[in-house]
Amino acid sequence: MTTYTRPSRTRAHGHTPTRPRFLARTIAALALALLVTATGSSCSTPDNSTVGGQGDPVDRHGQDFAPGTLRVLASSELADMAPVLEEARKATGITVRPTYAGTLDAVERIASGAADKSFDAVWLSSNDYLRLRPDTAGRITGETPIMTSPVALGVRPAAVARLGWDPAKVTWSQLHRAVADGKLTYGMTDPMRSNSGFSALVSVASGLSGAQAALTGQDVTKVTPRLKEFFAGQKLTSGSSGWLATAYARRTDVDALVNYESVLLSSPGKLTVIRPSDGVVTADYPLTLLTSARPEAKEAAGRLTTYLRTPAAQRRITETTLRRPVVAGVEPAAALARDQRRELPFPGSRAVADGLLDAYDNSLRRPSRTVYVLDTSGSMSGERLDRLKTALAELTSDFRDREEVTLMPFGSSVKRGEVRTHTVDPASPKAALDAIRSDALALSASGGTAIYSSLQEAYRSLGRAPGDTFTSVVLMTDGENTDGDPASAFDTFYRSLPAAQQRTPVFPILFGDSDRGELGHVADLTGGKLFDATKGSLDGAFEEIRGYQ
Questions:
Q1: How far is the C-alpha of 463 from the C-alpha of 499, rounded, in Å?
Q2: In the CATH scheme, what is the code of domain 367-548?
Q3: Of 30, 244, 322, 335, which is least surrounded by CB within 10 A?
């Protein structure tokens, strides 16, 4: 796996970052993709390499190049363009063969050069960050904006009425004041994994700083106290806007969602969409050729983009997706407001963007509290336990400042003597990170499998926590429940919890011989999400969950 390594720097509180692996991958993700939120999980075609004819490039995902076909690595959100692309095929003869992917997966392919063998073009939400990176900008060429959608807030109508707002006139300062006064709460995707979250972070920093030109480090420093107040109101985080919308629907204590206008208008339930009157950050969805594309593919992309920018296609796009047209004279869909908004300035350098992301992750957002409920039954002995130890040891470098991490191994019951909790001290994070790694490597396999009794123990542990954190439970098991309480007992236990404790989701990991139906039920019951490590790596599943913590 090829990743970009960001230069080391010292944080404001005086120590050097100790989580370079994840941050490096994150910066590469934003630099090349800025993938707008969607499912957040990789939906790509499995790797199934085939041998092509002489001179034919081989698509590593089972897609050989074919004349008249454009192989596109695309944001998962763009699945809603399917009817438009079918009409484009009939009009131009160009078949778009999309491979939908989550941010990290897509970026790893592009950054490593693997995408050059499998794709002709990429279709992401924005190339703004990419322009700050000349070393990677050389992999793309010929970007053509197709449509736009600004960052906005979707607010429950009751909250708008309570605050006495005119939606057309609300500013970022008003939003900040409402949050700081405890009158508005919201959910937002993780800027480290989702472009909508990153765009929202840039929007808030630019809007509150009053910057009139490219956002600078001084702008960020000046506005940091207000940013801390604003992000104290974030009650939901997510690696994908799909899960975020579902979680939001379950909550009565969250007033708003921050996302792209098109996503908010397409979300279930009635939301009042507010585009702050003092400016927005906008995605322009450029269809972008890879420099490695064959001449035939480049010609096909030219025909496709020409068609997509015709007035008829632009009208179809805005009506189908609720994104805004980019061609003059084409009216936006009826659901879209017509008044204009200033485009807020993007960070002026890569260092400013990196610093803003690092500040969000380690000081601006609420800290995380997570219990890792880990199956260390007898069936985990050998290679499975080794994989778990390796995954946890690697994950250690991803933990944030102020984060509380509990490792709760279980067999026939929770192995109480091995339960350890560590909090990452911003002043000296290495001690906690080393301790977590040591505890992970010391895990041993024995006993049966008490899944549901162990989950109850995790909730009891978190129930004693303060309410100003993002709390979650991660469950990793390689088999079915054999000991302790049955599934029905956990259901009864969970439903008896106070509402505040029921807001803690469980993120189960499907591994080994575990039961998809049983783990899926736990995720659905608690408002979590199931992650599949049977088709991918265990460390990849743990890492993907980080966007939800």
A1: 11
A2: 3.40.50.410
A3: 335
